[in-house]
Amino acid sequence: MVINAKAGTARTADRAGLSARIAERVGAIGTAASVEFVEPRAWRRRIEALARDPAVDTVVVGGGDGSVSTAGTVLAGSGKAMGVIPLGTFNLFARSLRIPVGMDAAVDSIPGWRAAAVDVGEMTDGQGRSHLFLHHVSFGFHPRFIETRDAVPYASRLGKMLASLRVWGRTMKSLHRMSMTVRGDVERPRRRYYQAAVTVGSFREGFGDFPHAEDLTKGDLDLVLLPARGRADFVVALFLAAIGRWRSNSRLEVAAIRDVELATRRPTVKASIDGELERCASPFRFKVRPKALIVLMPPRPPAD
C-alpha cells in the first residue's frame, strides 16, 4: 500500500498506528501488505515501479482525487488490482466505488472488498497526446473555477470547501462562453457553451452528495453540455446539479457516448482532467476503454 504523504489526513496521521491497522485488516483476508508513505514528487514513479513489479498483484493507494487518478491511469491495463483509501476533499472516484469516505471507515471496509473491472475514459488531444481519466474531463467554467480556487490559500479540507464557496460566486460574475462543435455519437453544430464535460459513467441522481458515477461497468461515457443561455439559466443549471439533478436537469444536455470529438474555436484551452488542470490542444477525441482497470471495492448491493 502506498499513501501520499501530503494528502489530507495522512499529513497528521500516526503512521505507525495506521500501518499496523492496515496490516491487521489485510491479514483478515489471508494476505500480507507493506505500507509506505510517498512524497508527491515521487508518486507517479513509485506507482510505475509497482506496476512493473511481477511480485505485486495489488496496489492500494491512499490519497485525494489527483493521487488516485494518477495511480489508476498507470495501473489501467496492467492486470494489477487497485484499492483506494480516500484521503482528499471530495474523493469522487472512491465514492463511485462505494468505498466509505474517511480513512478509518475505508480501512475498516478492506476485508469486504472484492475485485471488479471498471471503465476508464481516454482523451486524445490535437497534438496526439493521450490522457486517461477515471472521473471526468471538463472545459469552460469548471477549470476556471479550479484555477481561481487554487490561488486562494487554504490549509485544510474544510478550508478548501470554504474557498470553493467564496470562489464560486466570484467566478459566476465573469462568465465566459466557449465556442465548440461536437461530432461522433452526438452531433452538434458550432454553439456557445458555459461548460462541456465528459464523465466516466452517468452521475448518480440524488440530493446531498458530490457528483460521482452510479455504475462504472456499463461501457460508456456521458457527455454533459451546459449551453450559454444567460446568467439566470446558468445559476438554475448549477443549482439543480448541486442537488443531484443531472440527466433530469432540463438546462443540461446529457447523452451516453462511446466515441465523440469536441472542437473549440481556440487552438488550446485549459481542461480539468480528474481535477488537475492542463492546457490541451483542440480537437479532443474521447473514447471509453471498457473494464480497463481492476479495482477492489465493496460488493454492489442487490437491486430492489
TrEMBL record:
Tagged with keyword Ribosomal protein: no
Top-rank lineage group of the source organism: Bacteria
InterPro entries listed in its UniProt record: ATP-NAD_kinase_N, Diacylglycerol_kinase_cat_dom, NAD/diacylglycerol_kinase_sf, YegS/DAGK_C
Keywords: Kinase, Transferase
Domain DAGKc: 39-127
Pfam family, one: YegS_C
GO molecular function: kinase activity
Keyword set includes Transferase: yes
Designated name of the protein: Diacylglycerol kinase family enzyme
